[in-house]
Amino acid sequence: MQQGNEITYPIYSPASIIGLFNNALKLNATVNLIYLKGRYSYGGGKAYVNYYYDFLYSESDNTSIGVKMPGLLRSKITNNEIYTLRGFIEKRVKNSSIELIFVVDELISQEEKSVFEDDFKRYDLIQKKLEKGSQDIETFIRDKILRSEKARIANIYGHNAIVQKDFYEGLDISSKDFDIDDYTCNITSATSISDLLDTISAKGYDVIALVRGGGDKQSFEVFNNLLLAEKLISIPAITITALGHTADETLLDKLADKRFHLPHDYGSGLHAILNKLTEEKSNSRALLIEEVKKDVSKQFVEQVSTLTGQLKKKNDEFIEAQKTFKEHVEQQSKAFSEQLKVRNEEVEKLKKEITETYGKQVNTLTEQLTKKNEEFQKLQENAAKQIQEINTSFSAQQKQRQEEMEIHKKEIASLYEKNIQSAVNEKTAALQAGLEASKLENAHLDKRLREQKTDYTKVIIAAVIALIIGYIIARIL
């Protein structure tokens, strides 16, 4: 549209655009009754306003369209059978898409289900799984717990999934008994799931689980993928599915070692296994204790009976031995008494002989000892006298030596004074001679001084010398 020189454009809202296309899709199939043929598959298990919302799949592939089926007609439908239906197309605007729903008006016919190549492949996979055998998750966890080990579990969720909390709520406090890692991928893509299975399988997990919280029927078909199913049964780990659908069973559900309907059921199933094992251990422990009590009681009674018999026998033997021992002791006591009497007589006789034999020797030794004591006393008296005489003589000699030392001290003092006086006189004479010489020299110098009035230096020198000499003389005197 152009106004003057300005160009304008029509502006639409998202709702108006969807409405335009919705109104534009006016075909004969949308306004008239049409016939559709395909494989009928149940959707949700509940009816909404007396209508069930299921799917109709093409016979040659997995393309589907939603089906709005009246409750009365649906009661005549068998799941996964081929039907020809009459109805019309109903369009629904959903977000930015237009969804086509086939509203069934009449059930025309039912055909026998054809057997396709995919069905043979599914059968082969199921047969292969039967030959391989399923691993029992309960037995495996039991063995792990008994060995005090934790089972390593890998859970695969979809991107942005929120069902993890359902799983952990079901698992409750048993989460501490497992090592659990969570992985995410495009849960609607068989390729994405298969690649993640390869990655996880290489890490050596004990259990690998596919966990999903439900979803539309069409996206649910990924779990019937043959290549993904073949990958699942080739994994050495225990496989588990918890896909969120209670009514439908997918190919992966059939091939997994264990199937749970919901993520919460999966968690609570593991929790129940641990509870069962705990109860069994408690019961088995109680039974074991009871059996042990019975065995111990029986053994104890037998041992007590045996020991009682042995004790009685030992008591009889002891009484007999005690009697024999008493007789033997009496015999020995009698013999010992007789021997002791003989020995006492011999001892008395020996004491008498010893007294007679050694009495004389004791008297002789006593006399000798008395004589030696007298001689020793005399020797002590003589020694005391000699010591007194020696002390008197030493005192006299010491006094004489003291007097001699006093005389020598006086003589030494006199000689010392004489020697000092002699030395002083000698020095005095020498100094007197020096003084006389100094006087003569002074006189001579005085004469020369008078002769030479200007020679002051000599005068000063002479005066200094005179002073020195006078100082020396004064020190000597």
Question: What does this protein structure show overall?
Answer:
The protein has 477 residues and is of the alpha/beta class. It is built from eleven helices and twelve strands. A five-stranded mixed beta barrel has the order 3-4-5-7-6. Helix 9 (251-255) links the parallel strand 11 (238-242) and strand 12. It is elongated and about 180 Å long. The relative contact order is 0.05. The model has no long low-confidence stretch (mean pLDDT 81).
Q: Any descriptors?
A:
five-stranded mixed barrel; 477 residues; alpha/beta; 17% strand; single chain; five-stranded parallel β-sheet; 12 strands
The pLDDT mean sits at 81
Strand neighbour order, sheet with most strands: 3-4-5-7-6
User: What class do helices, strands and sheet pairing give?
Assistant: alpha/beta
Oligomer description? single chain
Helix content: 55-70%
